[in-house]
Amino acid sequence: MTSPLGKRCNIRGRYTECMKGLSPAELKILKRLNTPIKIQDFLDTLPTNFEHGGETCFSPRKVLRERKAHCMEGAMLAALALRVHGHKPWVLDLKVASSEDDHVVTPFTIKGYWGAISKTNHVLVRYRDPIYRTLRELVMSYFHEYTDTKGKKVLRWYSKPLDLSRFDSQGWMTSEEDVFYIPQYLDTIRHYPLITKSQDKLLRPADRMELKIGAMLEWKSERKRNV
């Protein structure tokens, strides 16, 4: 059967072997999430993980059990869902030039066009439809909305897509321990600049209405998490 995502990657033997660690209940959920839209809709039902007990980096198994996620955790779960349907389990880092948190999304391609799945508590840095011709074009779709609390546009770099299958030997999909080694590695790989220093000086801060919209949160908590 043809995947709704289009042509499968030629990795069936490898990912089938890796899926053996997932329980029947986990696979049932993941097999149901057979399009990026379904994956995004599922992530949107999960409350934000505000990490009240300390920083976490849940594996996809723990996200499914705890029923909450922040952006990195959501990105890994989305990558696994794509993998179950025969596609590369990629994550992509969006790096900022301030104390604001970076954001991590799950990129995918359909018929040669890029889109992204995004677990976020904010209004604007969310799902992107697969309409972008290049990865850079996809990332630039987040540029104007990605601001700090004072309205400064802070998105500056993006990573190449990281294939999470490189961590299979460490059990990233089903680990009962936090998988901090993934965001730590993601932070070290090559990142590409989005704008020049001269362009930075020309940026207009977000206006009052943009700040008002940007301050809206989907899930409420006593402790604020930026993305």
Shape: globular
Helical coverage, percent range? 25-40%
Number of H/I helices? 9
Element string (H = helix, E = strand):
HHHHHEEEEHEEHEHH
Low-confidence stretches: 6-13
Gap from first CA to last CA: 37 Å
Largest sheet: 7 strands, antiparallel
The overall average pLDDT, rounded, is 90
How many domains comprise the coordinates? 1
Give the helix/strand class. alpha+beta
Tell how many strands the DSSP assignment holds: 7
Q: What proportion of the residues form beta strands (DSSP E)? A: 15-25%
Rg over CA atoms, rounded to whole Å, is 17 Å
Topology summary:
Layout lengths: L11 H7 L5 H9 L3 H9 L15 H7 L4 H14 L5 E7 L6 E8 L2 E5 L10 E5 L2 H6 L14 E5 L2 E2 L17 H8 L2 E3 L3 H4 L7 H7 L13
Short description:
31% of the residues lie in helices and 15% in strands. It has helices spanning 12-18, 24-32, 36-44, 60-66, 71-84, 135-140, 181-188, 197-200, 208-214; strands at 90-96, 103-110, 113-117, 128-132, 155-159, 162-163, 191-193. Helix 3 (36-44) packs antiparallel against helix 5 (71-84) and helix 4 packs across helix 5.
